[in-house]
Design a protein that fits this description.
Layout lengths: L7 E6 L3 H12 L4 E7 L2 H9 L15 E4 L8 H8 L8 E6 L4 H9 L4 E4 L4 H18 L7
Parallel strand pairs: 1-2, 1-3, 3-4, 4-5
Helix pairs in contact: 2-3
Length: 149
């Protein structure tokens, strides 16, 4: 059964303001992905998803369809968030790691902990566009929608 959802909301989780900026700009070129929130570390991501503290207003902080998650962050890292997500009820959320690391062990650990995909950070526009297309296809696959050709 194919769903017909046309737009998916995104929460960016990255401690680097520059990386969030470049990712946000890349996602603005997507026809189906829209950023609804940004947080700086894994603890803020868990607070956001739980609707706790500064994130209790669900109008201002809606549950996203997609979580784009860095691994290496202060307080709680991406692995901590992935482990926490396993005990939560966000089964329809697509989780993709977007990291500066291309180490096989980081990729493997992310996937073992439940990430649906893994993408390498970049600031090159052509590579960003390819990454966004990859994220779009991952989201469509997870939502059971035919990927773009």
């Amino acid at each position: 059964m194919n769903k017909t959802k046309e737009c998916f909301t995104v929460l960016l989780v990255d401690d680097s303001e520059d990386d969030r900026f470049f990712m946000r700009k890349a996602l603005e070129r997507s026809s189906i992905l829209t950023v609804v929130g940004e947080v700086r570390d894994g603890q803020e991501a868990m607070d956001y998803l739980s609707g706790e503290a500064a994130f209790s207003d669900r109008q201002a902080n809606p549950i996203p369809d997609v979580l784009l998650l860095d691994i290496k962050m202060p307080r709680k890292n991406g692995y901590d968030v992935l482990e926490w997500l396993q005990s939560q009820s966000f089964k329809t959320m697509t989780v993709a790691v977007v990291s500066g690391s291309w180490l096989a062990e980081d990729i493997a650990k992310s996937m073992i902990l439940g990430a649906h995909g893994y993408f390498k950070k970049t600031v090159l526009k052509e590579e960003e566009d390819q990454m966004v297309l990859g994220i779009e296809n991952l989201v469509k696959k997870h939502a059971n929608i035919e990927p773009a050709k």
